[in-house]
Design brief:
Distance between the termini: 14 Å
Bound molecules: 1,3-dihydroxyacetonephosphate
Number of helices: 12
Helix content: 40-55%
Number of strands: 11
Largest sheet: 8 strands, parallel, barrel
CATH topology: TIM Barrel
Strand order of the largest sheet: 1-2-3-4-5-8-10-11
Order of helices and strands: HEHEHHEHEHEEEHEEHEHEHHH
Radius of gyration: 18 Å
CATH superfamily: Aldolase class I
CATH architecture: Alpha-Beta Barrel
Shape: globular
Length: about 290
């Protein structure tokens, strides 16, 4: 059964570790992440972007697939199915479809509008026992080949959004999605510290988990980060393993073209990446 992310993140914040959100793209991705979480006895959050939602034939398809896998694979660790960077409309669609958690990313609105829309969703998710992630200060990343710098959120605005009763809060602290550029300045621990001072027990979310050095991840966790999002890194390891298989001509040997064989090394690579992250985040054995 899917669960809200509230309990797992409250425990993570208290226990000073973080739960990984791993974005899913298809059946193989989902299965690899669920199996790894079960094997390591770790709670896990499956992230679905709006684009990936469309790719996987809509939110109800995803809910059916994930619930089916939890049953068929005998998954007993806590699993939250979470909309990543959702619009107000898509947050509602996911709630209707049976997601157990949603993110409303109102960071591109004025703070007043972000507050108004977040507040409405707090009421809705509270009533249904679902978790809600809000965002303050946009998180940069690559768009059309240009890498935008990671913005730093205003701690006072973070407090205003946290006080609405959201479950967890994503705040820009110089992090960006995708690969970090050579000249990246690193995370702003000063901003993170100021945000945690004002928001207290609120589990904080670090987006753009790909490529952040281990020491920075550990420091971020020590300053209140309880959820870390990883997407690109699984894509990169999947692609590298698949490339190797094909370049070695394995798809041309025997039945090597069978998708169950062709995709197997990529699946193993995703598992290895997820394992490495769960160990780094400290969530192993915390289910
Ligand atoms: P990366 O793709 O950089 O790992 O970021 C993932 C993320 O933050 C999803 O919201």
């Amino acid at each position: 059964m899917l669960v809200s992310a509230k309990e797992m993140l409250t425990k993570a914040k208290q226990g000073k570790y973080a739960v990984g959100q791993f974005n899913i793209n298809n059946l193989e991705w989902t299965k690899a992440i669920l199996q790894t979480a079960q094997e390591l006895n770790s709670p896990v959050i499956l992230g679905v972007s709006e684009g990936a939602g469309k790719y996987m034939c809509g939110y109800t398809t995803i809910v059916g697939m994930v619930n089916g896998m939890i049953n068929e694979l005998g998954i007993t660790v806590p699993v939250a199915l979470h909309l990543d960077h959702g619009s107000y409309e898509h947050a509602k669609k996911c709630i209707e479809a049976g997601f157990s958690s949603v993110m409303f990313d109102g960071s591109h609105y004025s703070i007043e509008e972000n507050i108004a829309k977040t507040k409405e969703l707090v009421e809705l998710t509270d009533k249904l026992g679902l978790s809600l992630e809000a965002e303050v200060g946009s998180i940069g990343g690559e768009e059309d080949g240009v890498i935008g710098a990671g913005e730093c959120a205003d701690p006072a605005e973070c407090k205003m959004i946290a006080d609405l009763g959201v479950t967890m809060l994503a705040a820009g602290i110089g992090n960006i999605h995708g690969k970090y550029p050579e000249n990246w300045a690193g995370l702003s621990f000063e901003t993170l510290d100021a945000i945690q001072q004002l928001t207290g027990d609120m589990p904080l979310v670090l987006h753009g988990g790909t490529g952040i050095p281990a020491d920075m991840i550990k420091k971020a966790i020590s300053l209140g980060v309880s959820k870390i999002n990883v997407n690109t890194e699984c894509q990169l390891s999947f692609a590298a393993a698949t490339r190797k298989y094909v370049e070695e001509g394995k798809d041309l040997q025997g039945k090597g073209f069978d998708p169950r064989k062709l995709l197997a090394p990529g699946v193993e690579a995703i598992k290895a990446t997820v394992k490495e992250k769960m160990e780094l985040f400290g969530s192993v054995g915390k289910a």
